[in-house]
Amino acid sequence: MVRRGEILDDGIEDDFYIRRLDAGLFVLQLICYIMVEISNSGIAQLQQRVQQILNLRGGSVKVVRHIMREYAESIGDGKSEEFKEAERKRIMDLVENF
């Protein structure tokens, strides 16, 4: 739609995002989140194994970081704004150390 020059309003963007979540984005985000958490555990062998699995499957750190940034931007579960911002910061810190 963007390529055709159409203007997307927030409602259309939200609908598109929800469709992507239903189509598997949510599971992908959770897997990336687990990989980022494991890699930040401080255990070098775990970080090496995550990198090895990514390389074997043709994945990249860049893609995982992009998925996690999108995840952090979309956090909103009805909690307070302070909680959401703290969680966003925590996730972004994990991503930067990935």
UniProtKB/TrEMBL annotation:
Main location class: nucleus
A cellular component term, taken from the record's GO annotations: spliceosomal complex
The entry's keywords: Coiled coil, Nucleus, Phosphoprotein, Repeat
Domain Beta-catenin-like protein 1 N-terminal residues, every copy: 10-69
Protein's cellular compartments: Nucleus
Annotated InterPro entries: ARM-like, CTNNBL1, CTNNBL1_N
One Pfam family cited in the UniProt record for this chain: CTNNBL
PANTHER family from the UniProt entry: BETA-CATENIN-LIKE PROTEIN 1 (PTHR14978:SF0), BETA-CATENIN-LIKE PROTEIN 1 NUCLEAR ASSOCIATED PROTEIN (PTHR14978)
Protein name per UniProt: Beta-catenin-like protein 1 N-terminal domain-containing protein
